[in-house]
């Protein structure tokens, strides 16, 4: 079904073969070859196609969307939401999550350093941009989900220091976010920020963002401005937490008391 569905969705999205190739990060000639059944896309290209069309990978390869019934059901998912104004992507189900894979077709973790943060807002959906980013893998995270790493700046999330790399798992359904979840939030107005997210989507199409550092006041962000959300799952830092001296003093006092009690018992 790949060639049939590629032609169907390209026409529904009103894209030329050249425009489709640009969105998928491949050559225009490959789009023609895929549509004519002369070549088969790689797994990473299939994944990007499914994300671009807003359908599952399974549906892309098994469902004939050129048939009227299947096409109608799929196209309804791409219409602007009228009863769910909090739907991610500005009320539109069509979102693109580009990714890269290694030689064994395992998804990489792309690292977005501080110096690349501004460019990420323009290149987050561009496979060619992602190819230029540093990449690594963390087997301990398993294979469930897509991960990306962001180097944070500032002291709003102390004791996690500026320069720490936060590894986040892509959140597809924002409505499932639980209050207080630490996340990387990518938005058109705020850029890339690391905050605790409080879900206000059903009440007013907003997210409340809180810092762990009490010196920073919470604020709200309109869901229309949000591009991506990555739930924090791990962090990498060269800065070790500073010991809490007050706790050390308390521990010392307790130890002294224990020793005094022990001495009194012996006496």
Automatic annotation (TrEMBL):
<dbReference type="InterPro" id="IPR036286">
    <property type="entry name" value="LexA/Signal_pep-like_sf"/>
</dbReference>
<dbReference type="InterPro" id="IPR039418">
    <property type="entry name" value="LexA-like"/>
</dbReference>
<keyword id="KW-0805">Transcription regulation</keyword>
<keyword id="KW-0238">DNA-binding</keyword>
<dbReference type="InterPro" id="IPR001387">
    <property type="entry name" value="Cro/C1-type_HTH"/>
</dbReference>
<dbReference type="GO" id="GO:0003677">
    <property type="term" value="F:DNA binding"/>
</dbReference>
<protein>
    <submittedName>
        <fullName>Helix-turn-helix domain-containing protein</fullName>
    </submittedName>
</protein>
<dbReference type="InterPro" id="IPR015927">
    <property type="entry name" value="Peptidase_S24_S26A/B/C"/>
</dbReference>
<dbReference type="InterPro" id="IPR010982">
    <property type="entry name" value="Lambda_DNA-bd_dom_sf"/>
</dbReference>
<dbReference type="Pfam" id="PF00717">
    <property type="entry name" value="Peptidase_S24"/>
</dbReference>
<keyword id="KW-0804">Transcription</keyword>
<dbReference type="Pfam" id="PF01381">
    <property type="entry name" value="HTH_3"/>
</dbReference>
<feature type="domain" description="HTH cro/C1-type">
    <location>
        <begin position="6"/>
        <end position="60"/>
    </location>
</feature>
């Amino acid at each position: 079904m790949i060639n049939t569905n590629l032609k169907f969705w390209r026409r529904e999205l009103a894209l030329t073969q050249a425009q489709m190739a640009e969105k998928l990060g491949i050559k225009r000639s490959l789009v023609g070859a895929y549509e004519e059944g002369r070549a088969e896309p790689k797994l990473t290209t299939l994944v990007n196609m499914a994300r671009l069309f807003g359908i599952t990978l399974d549906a892309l390869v098994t469902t004939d969307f050129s048939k009227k019934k299947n096409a109608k059901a799929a196209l309804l998912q791409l219409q602007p939401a009228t009863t769910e104004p909090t739907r991610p992507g500005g009320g539109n189900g069509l979102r693109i999550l580009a990714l890269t894979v290694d030689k064994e077709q395992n998804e990489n973790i792309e690292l977005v350093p501080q110096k690349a943060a501004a460019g990420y807002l323009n290149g987050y959906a561009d496979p060619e941009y992602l190819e230029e980013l540093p990449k690594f893998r963390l087997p301990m995270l398993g294979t469930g989900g897509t991960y990306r790493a962001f180097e944070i700046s500032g002291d709003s999330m102390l004791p996690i220091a500026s320069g720490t790399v936060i590894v986040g798992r892509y959140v597809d359904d924002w409505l499932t976010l639980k209050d207080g979840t630490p996340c990387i939030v990518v938005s058109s107005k705020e850029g890339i920020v690391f905050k605790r997210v409080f879900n206000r989507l059903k009440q007013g199409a907003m997210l409340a963002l809180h810092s762990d550092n009490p010196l920073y006041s919470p604020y709200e962000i309109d869901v229309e401005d949000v591009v991506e959300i990555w739930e924090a799952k791990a962090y990498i830092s060269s800065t070790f937490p500073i010991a809490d001296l007050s706790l050390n003093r308390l521990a010392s006092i307790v130890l002294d008391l224990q020793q005094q009690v022990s001495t009194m018992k012996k006496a």
